[in-house]
Amino acid sequence: MTIRAFCTLAAAIFALIALLQLIRIVMGWSVTLNGVDVPFWASWIAVTVAGALSFVGFRAAMRLKIGNAFGSSISAMLPSMLPSRSPRRQH
């Protein structure tokens, strides 16, 4: 699986979660876990977090070239992700 496919799949799953949480809010569905009602503000947080993760995933998928293999994509991204090292001073 390429990184682009992974990012697209993960983004689609997060978008579905955000959509379902938003539907829960609009329709007024109650959720009870172990006898405790889950408040709607928890769904607002879930919509925000899942929506942001979906956006980031789709944006990452669009920035990657089509057909990159998993390893080559990682190795191309690593230099920009690693902190730069300054040469050590010798005393």
Descriptive account of the structure:
- Helix 1 packs antiparallel against helix 2.
- The chain has three helices and two strands, in the order αββαα.
- A two-stranded antiparallel ribbon has the order 1-2.
- It has 91 residues and is mainly alpha-helical.
- 11% of the residues are buried.
SSE arrangement:
Elements: H1 3-27, E1 31-33, E2 36-38, H2 40-63, H3 70-81
Antiparallel strand pairs: 1-2
Helix pairs in contact: 1-2
Using the CA coordinates, give the radius of gyration. 20 Å
State the strand order across the main sheet: 1-2
**Structural domain tally:** 1
**Major β-sheet annotation:** 2 strands, antiparallel
Number of strands: 2
Low-confidence stretches are none
Strand content: 5-15%
Q: Helix coverage percent of residues? A: 55-70%
Number of H/I helices: 3
pLDDT averaged over residues:
83
Give helix and strand order, one letter per element, not per position.
HEEHH
Shape: elongated
Class of secondary structure makeup: mainly alpha
**End-to-end distance, in Å?**
49 Å
